[in-house]
Design a protein that fits this description.
Blueprint lengths: L1 H36 L4 H91 L1
């Protein structure tokens, strides 16, 4: 459930990023075309370019900062979830190992008990046979 929500949020962020990048590119191209067709001096054109560049640069910088912040948050959540999964898996493996060791120990004890019982019966049978002969 969380993965689907993260994927949808990531997809939504990607769509928003694509739209913003397209809008900024369109604004730059439009500004460039407008400047090329407007007769201005070199100094005036540079001033106009700087006026148009600064807000766009600030928006791009803000967008990049937001994207980095969100990426950092997502990375933190993924790290936390991965750590939880690894911890649970480690606990399960440990429990399974303990259970297997206990079962093996019980089987060895049962085998020893059976061997001792058979040996005792064999000794009793041998003594009985010896005393009858």
């Amino acid at each position: 459930m969380y993965n689907r929500m993260d994927e949808q949020q990531t997809s939504s962020n990607s769509n928003a990023a694509g739209f913003l990048l397209g809008a900024l590119t369109g604004a730059l191209v439009g500004a460039g075309v407008a400047l090329l067709f407007a007769p201005k001096t070199g100094k005036k054109m540079r001033e106009d370019l700087m006026k148009q560049y600064e807000p766009i640069a600030q928006k791009v910088s803000s967008f990049a900062s937001d994207a980095m912040s969100r990426a950092s948050e997502v990375a933190g959540r993924v790290t936390d979830r991965a750590s939880d999964v690894v911890g649970r898996a480690t606990d399960r493996v440990s429990d399974a190992t303990d259970s297997a060791a206990s079962t093996l120990h019980d089987a060895v004890d049962a085998g020893r008990s059976k061997v001792n019982h058979v040996m005792s019966q064999a000794q009793t049978s041998a003594q009985t046979a010896k005393s009858r002969s």
